[in-house]
Amino acid sequence: MKARLVLLATILDVVVLAGLGVGIFFAPLTLVWAFSDGFSTQLVDSWAVAVQGWFLGHSVPLAIELPEELAQSLGLGALGQSFQVTVALLGIALLTLLWGYRIGARQGTGRFPFLTWFLAIGTMVGLSFLLVFFLPAGIVTIDIMDALVRPALFLAAGLALATWAGPNTAGREIIRDRIPQVASSIIRAGFAAGVGSLIAMVGVAALVVSVLLVLNFSSVISLYEALQPGAYGIIALSIAQLALLPTVVVWVFSWLIGPGFALGAGAMVSPLGTSLQAVPALPLAGIVPQAVPSWSLAIIALPAVVAFGAGIAARTRLLGETRGGLWVGDSGTPWFAQPALMSLFSALLASVVAAGGGALLAALASGEMGPGRFVQVGPDPATIALWWGTEVFAGVLLGFLSGGLARSLSSTRR
To answer: What is the pTM of this model?
Structure first.
């Protein structure tokens, strides 16, 4: 594949990505403008909301300054006239991340990596600049540096992920060829167990959200009816909630591991206790439990069980298929290459990786959603890192050690 074709394909990919992200919001808003508003409003206002939603999907804060009359009519007062919305609609960020992975995994990227990275990130920065520069003036303002950097970071994260995922990628070759065997095994097993624990736990959270939506379907429909958005308003509201759905999955993830999340100042949802006041006027809020289930304390053991399974699955990356106990009596084996110590070091790395990933997800899914009580929404990243890191360390270490014991017993019987 020639460099010119790679150049054109990369630029086109990023343009399509930005157009698709903005279009996810703009298409239903156009239906509302045409059929519900009867062309009475300006379409440029719908375009502005779509662009703002795309930026918010990439965790770009939206600063909102309400007119004094509107703030007074809503009962917000002078203090509620200015506020921010910073809770990301992670569905859009996930789309950009996966699109970046798709670009990074192409054959042309492997042949011209620097060219592809430069063009992809540069095109995203350029498109972000055009979108924010030509954004119609209104009550919402966006910091231009946040607008330029944050969408490009999600795209770069997808490109970087493609560099490391898979057995024969450039990142794996660096670890395999330039790092000593023992350290390489510890790093590979630690990252595999940490990332595997995080992905598995987020998957469990997504499954729980699906079950809650089915069980609380009537409550969700009742909230739709209370809002009375109209047929096309329902379409627009549903698409906005689909973009918010990964954020809700992160909230449920924080509930499953213990600390829970806030739905406003003084309103906490946790397996250790739930204290709810008014919740955001979204149909998705219908899945939020009003009280702590009787079995909630038992659910805190689930993260350690998930991490235990990840530890067992990653043990072959650490010690291979060799049989034996946790300590090798051979005098030629250095202390740092003993299975027990390698398991300890790898479990520590897994806990750091998982805690860092969990804290990052919590930071993206928390912040402000409006004035008043809703200046504090979502999980606390530091608390998530502490709880989740501890649970992953214990589970992964037990997985490594139990795998060693099982192999030792099997070898003894033979």
So the answer is: 0.86
